[in-house]
Structure formats: C-alpha cells, structure tokens
Fold:
Amino acid sequence: MTDQYTFRNPVTAYEKVSPPKQHQEEPGLDSELTPLADLGEDTYRGTGRLEGRKAIVTGADSGIGAATAIAFAREGADVVLSYLPEEEKDAARIAGIIEAAGRKAIRVPADLKDKKACRDLVDKALSELGGIDILVNNAGKQVAQKDFADITDEQFDHTYKTNVYAMFWLTKAALPHLPAGSTIINSTSIQAYAPSATLVDYASTKAAINNFTKGLAAQLAPQGIRVNAVAPGPIWTPLQASDGQPTEELPEFGHATPLGRAGQPAELAPAYVFLASAESSYVVGETLNVNGGITSP
Structure:
C-alpha cells in the first residue's frame, strides 16, 4: 500500500487539482470541499515516533490540523482536537479516525478568539489526558480582499485574534504544564515572506508568528522546551474555498509552484511529526517550509 514513505515523483505524487469555482461560508468544511482534500487518512503509516505523547492541535477538524492530528495518533499520541462549533461534522470524523488508531480523541469545540476558551482548552487537556507535551497552534483565519479599504476593523481584529492572540493565550496557559522535552509548533505560511496583495492582514499575522516562534524558542530552549514553526505554501483546504482565495482564482490554485500543483494536507503532517518527535531534538527556532519549491528564506 502507498504511504508517506513510498518512493514517488513529487510532481505526480498527488493529483494536480483544478478546483471548480466554489464558495462556502466561513469557516468551511472538508466534507463539502470539491475535490476533497487528502488528509492522509488512507495512507499515513505510523512507526511509534510519538508513543505515549499528549497533544493539543487547534484547527484539528480539517485541513492541515486534521492531517496532523491523524498522523500524531498513528504515531502513538493522544490528541485534543480544538475547532469551531460549526465544524463538528468534520471533527467527529477525525475523532473517529484517531480512535480507530487506538488513541484518545478529546473534542473541544470553542472559538479561540476568546481568552477564556483558550484557558479552558488547556484545562480540558490536563483533565482528560493528565498532561500536555505537544502544542500545535494551527487554527487560522484568512479572508481575501482585493481592496485594502474592504478590510473591516472586525475582520482585522478577528484575523489577529485567531492567528496571533490565540497562539499567545494558549502558549501562556500551557507553558506551566509542559515538561522538558515538550514541543510547541506554530503554523505560519509562505505569506510571511511573499505576501499576496489580497491577504494583507493574514500575511502580516504569519510574519508575526515567525517572529514569535524564534523569540520564544530562544527563551524556552534552556528549559528543554523546543519551539518551531511550519510554513505551508498553497495547500488545498476549506480555508481556500471559504473566502481565503478569490473564487475566480481557485481553478489555478497552486499551479505556479515549481512542482506545478497545490499541496495536500497529508504532505504537511510529516513535518509536524518530525518537529514534535525526539528525532528533531537539536532543531530550535526553525521555520520548516513545505511549499512546493517556492523560494523562501
């Protein structure tokens, strides 16, 4: 059976999707995406790299977060799934896949723009899993606007609270409970380096996440807690179909990369597993770019 270790041509390893023009109301669902995203549910093979670990993954119902949660479970970790209440349908499916792998899946629907929700999420992880040693700050908000004047105060506030404030609040709440050997992984983006004209607010949050990651990594390294980031390129997820990209641009999404296609969430999961596992013990303050070959620092 094909899995993430199978020798393949990366140009053709996954389908080159040309999504039809489509629109979902935010936050969007994997189950309503055309074509469906590949989360690695049929292909990811674990090898015990995270045996006995305890993880929180935000935005875990779909896309990169869901693929990461599945991979963590198949590597032996129990996972707390954070997602918006509107995403319950997708989250229930991911929880079922995790439980089929023999691991715990704790579902916590909440809006992380609220500081108390972030604290409650950590408390839930502590009570259900008895601890935390992996925190993945992945939940994100992305809304394309062709005209800067159309970025409302509300959109700007929601984007920063979802992408930056929640990361800060969750990290602050989790930190007292993270033992030496723990890892924090933040999802940034190619947008941190090469911002699209339509994503001014989103791209600026991703640059902030990069900087936050490197500064926090330097502070926590002496405590044996590693902080790193993953910077995806164009990845096919519900984020793109729920105002994350201009609708008319969806059919060509990702085609300009050197690999000539958009990435799939399944292709991101191994990066998160690597940074969470002990094999990356000397990797600190790194931003791992998974972007199909787009030039980045």
Notes: The longest helix spans residues 153-174. The chain is about 35% helix and 10% strand.
